[in-house]
TrEMBL record:
GTP binds at residues 19-26, 89-93, 143-146. Its main location: cytoplasm. The chain holds residues 1 to 418 of 697 of the full protein. This is Elongation factor G. Belongs to the TRAFAC class translation factor GTPase superfamily. Classic translation factor GTPase family. EF-G/EF-2 subfamily. Catalyzes the GTP-dependent ribosomal translocation step during translation elongation. During this step, the ribosome changes from the pre-translocational (PRE) to the post-translocational (POST) state as the newly formed A-site-bound peptidyl-tRNA and P-site-bound deacylated tRNA move to the P and E sites, respectively. Catalyzes the coordinated movement of the two tRNA molecules, the mRNA and conformational changes in the ribosome. The keyword Ubl conjugation does not apply. It comes from the Bacteria. One of its GO terms (cellular component) is cytoplasm. Residues 10-290 form the Tr-type G domain. GO terms for biological process: ribosome disassembly.
Amino acid sequence: MTTKASNYLTHFRNIGIAAHIDAGKTTTTERILFFTGRNRNIGEVHDGAATMDWMEQERERGITITAAATTAKWTRSGTDQEYTVNIIDTPGHVDFTIEVERSMRVLDGAVAVFDSSQGVEPQSETVWRQADRYGVPRIAFSNKMDKTGASFDLVLNDIRERLGAIPAPVQYPMGEESDFKGVIDIVRMQAHTFTNDLGTEIEIGEIPEQFAGKVAEMRAQLIEAAAEVDEDVMMKFLEGEEPTQEELVAAIRKGTIEKRIFPVLCGSALKNKGVQLLLDAVIDYLPSPLEVPAIRGKVEDSEDTVAFPADPDGKLAALAFKIMADPYVGRLTFVRIYSGTMQSGSYVMNASKDKRERVGRLLKMHANSREEVTELRAGELGAVIGLKDSGTGNTLIGDGDDAVLLESIDIPEPVIKL
Ligand code: GDP
């Protein structure tokens, strides 16, 4: 049950973006930051040219994805509900496996990006298995739909055969390669057509006749998968009734969080196509910090473990997951707060090193700015300035609290057998 103090977390998504090198992780992340920035009217975006200028500037300044955790805001399309989306950098290269594993600890869900002309490549397999080990719910983005050789079916087949997972396409592409014109939302039964080259304008309409058969078939499979995880949908399914849109979304969400359903979307990050819909899917299907199992810490000198549910009023439990040197402010320690609240100017205990440390300033990193905050609450991520001895993987707890170590928690058994 959620306590009132943690209600804000319903509108939080802490996600990573994982991919084989070259599949488009950088481009997808940049576009997400672009659209979330645009969403908040950052930059004067009036027409296509200005849009591209803004992106180029961001790229030149090179700050879009250098932060270990970037905080963005997204208003779910068709609603006025704003969400906080923290994007955690997941190193893509196999050499950084330990770093990848550590980043898996601090995210609640992931977007797996595939190159739709290549299908599932070896590094994607590695990261997918790591996500399995850490029990990370995932949605997949079949990127590069505009590219020669792009095939949505190839990605679906590879997810089945190489990853041993059952893909649940929630979209279907309207055309492939240079014919890629939009995507069909199979859940809502709408066609989203991109009407400008930048993909920033989307027209929502009826599903074109030529795709009706394929979409009906895929929707039937989607409902069947949803029925497996949700009783209400199952009852309707058995009676030959259609679930409502809300029921279907809720069932897919439940299945995704339980790692029994892997929603698959498609688009072209390079052409900005489908990225807003991907953000909507992050909101719709990936869990909030309240919907994942509470992290556990091992009590020092004991076999006991203790859970830290996401509650800003609980005991402080945070993990330092990345140290970066900043030319202006020096050492930045990126942390995820699991429980409690970290205050600027306070003292914390580094339980891994048995050292008391003073928290100096606290920052939230945005794509094009840094925001100084006085506190970081449970479920939030940010950077601490002032920690001297805390290293990657260290546990930070409240000053005077009993020592617990978050690093030593058991890794859950894989959910999917490969
Ligand atoms: P990363 O290594 O996964 O971060 O991949 P990048 O984002 O750097 O992309 C690798 C290459 O693929 C770059 O040349 C991109 O311009 C290109 N690329 C990324 N997304 C798309 C896409 O949607 N369509 C096409 N045609 N190329 C893309």
